[in-house]
Design goal:
205 residues; alpha+beta; NADH Oxidase; four-stranded antiparallel β-sheet; 9 helices; 4 strands; binds flavin mononucleotide
Length: 205
């Protein structure tokens, strides 16, 4: 699909056909595209927790004010940011140093800059988890659409219960829920009103 067509075709699904399954291989294909998303210092702190079983999705529905699409979806996914992810920077940059893309000095400066920014800065970490996860999630939804799947981005309610259902570790901060499946066609509404460009773009010089 051409990009503009893809962007226009992606809609937030109102409900999903409940008898459709998605395989791990199909999800893997989507995640192979998601891998390319930008992240601060390329530290890739975003993690995805995927539930496909009826049992787990039913629990998620209960924790999500009964929103039915969390159950009818083929997969109900929690997108998280790892609050300790920045500590992986030495490992993530090691390859670049070994390949000579970065010299020792540049490597050390980069690791120091990352530590300086994130260490003991929980507000910044929390905000950055959200920034990185949202950019990743948007790419996830576009990649899914490109491969024939519909999605709906959603808030994560009852965060502690959701963390227990998915066995999400303490340091992974839930940012968004994404339900994925095949949309029930008759439920698709015309796209909601969009502000004209002049109302949200500010040319400052
Ligand atoms: C942060 C966020 C939370 C959302 N939560 C819900 C939700 O709980 N339930 C729902 O049906 N849609 C939810 N949506 C989808 C929006 O309603 C939808 O994106 C918007 O109406 C525009 O529709 P479109 O994506 O089809 O263009 C959410 C979207 C975002 C970005």
């Amino acid at each position: 699909m051409e990009f503009i067509e893809l962007a226009k075709e992606r809609r937030s699904a109102i409900n999903f056909q409940s008898d459709i399954k998605i395989s791990d291989a199909e999800l893997q294909e989507i995640f192979e595209v998601v891998k390319t998303h930008p992240s601060s210092f390329n530290i890739q702190t975003t993690h995805y927790y995927v539930a496909k079983s009826e049992e787990k999705k039913a629990k998620v529905k209960e924790a999500s004010y009964g929103q039915h699409k969390t159950l009818s979806a083929s997969a109900t996914i929690i997108v998280c940011g790892d609050s300790e992810g920045y500590k992986e920077a030495p490992r993530l940059y090691e390859g670049m140093k070994l390949l000579g893309i970065m010299d020792e000095l540049e490597y050390n400066d980069t690791i120091a800059a990352i530590n300086n920014l994130y260490e003991n800065n929980s507000k910044f970490i929390e905000d950055d988890n959200i920034r990185n996860a949202c950019l990743s999630a948007m790419l996830f939804m576009l990649a899914a659409k490109d491969q024939g799947w519909d999605t709906c981005p959603m808030h994560v309610h009852n965060v502690q219960t959701i963390k227990e259902i998915y066995k999400i570790p303490e340091n992974h901060q839930p940012v968004l829920m994404i339900t994925l499946g095949k949309s029930v066609k008759e439920k698709i509404r015309p796209r909601g009103y969009r502000k004209p460009v002049g109302e949200f773009v500010h040319f400052v010089d």
